[in-house]
């Protein structure tokens, strides 16, 4: 499976969905996590990988992408249905799965849908761990 968007994918806000990330996708494609764990993931199997997440973040160290960012790019590749994403959000016991789904929704959906889907998450006060540019996790 190549590192391309699925056939028949919709353009998001007028551009390729994989171009929505701030980091160059080639950095993600070169990461060992992408090569070992993100190959052939589907909307169903990505849940298992999201449950293993221990923190959110973008890049760290020498511009290495975090697992969270790799899974976000995979979601942008496979473009799951809206119903699947809503189910991700309903899984209240898995905060990192909800964070992944909410960021994907925020990046790809329209303003009204974002407001309708993500407003209930404002009542969720659980803390998320963040990996910053250094090697520390807060």
Automatic annotation (TrEMBL):
It is found in: Nucleus. Keywords: mRNA processing, mRNA splicing, Nucleus, Spliceosome. The keyword Nucleus applies. One of its GO terms (cellular component) is spliceosomal complex. Pfam families: PRP38. Its main location: nucleus. GO terms for biological process: mRNA splicing, via spliceosome. Required for pre-mRNA splicing. Belongs to the PRP38 family. This is Pre-mRNA-splicing factor 38. The lineage of its organism: Eukaryota, Fungi, Dikarya, Basidiomycota, Agaricomycotina.
């Amino acid at each position: 499976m190549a590192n391309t968007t699925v056939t028949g994918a919709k353009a998001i806000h007028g551009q390729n969905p994989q171009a929505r990330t701030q980091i160059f996708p080639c950095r993600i494609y070169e990461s060992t996590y992408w090569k070992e764990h993100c190959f052939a993931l589907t909307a169903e199997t990505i849940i298992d990988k999201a449950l293993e997440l221990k923190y959110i973040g973008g890049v760290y160290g020498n511009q290495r992408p975090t697992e969270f960012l790799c899974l976000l790019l995979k979601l942008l590749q496979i473009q799951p249905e809206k119903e699947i994403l809503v189910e991700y959000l309903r899984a209240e016991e898995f905060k990192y799965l909800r964070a992944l789904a909410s960021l994907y929704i925020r990046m790809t959906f329209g303003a009204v849908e974002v407001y309708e889907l993500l407003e209930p998450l404002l009542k969720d006060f659980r803390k998320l761990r963040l990996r910053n540019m250094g090697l520390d996790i807060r």
